[in-house]
Amino acid sequence: MWCFQQKNGIEVVEPNDTLSEQYFKEAEETLQEIKGGGSKWDVIMAYYACYHALYAILIKAGIKCEIHDCTLELLLVIKGFTPGDYSFLSNLKDQ
Question: Residue 90 to residues 3, 7, 17, 56, 71: CA-CA distances in angstroms?
Answer without folding.
Answer: 16, 21, 26, 18, 10
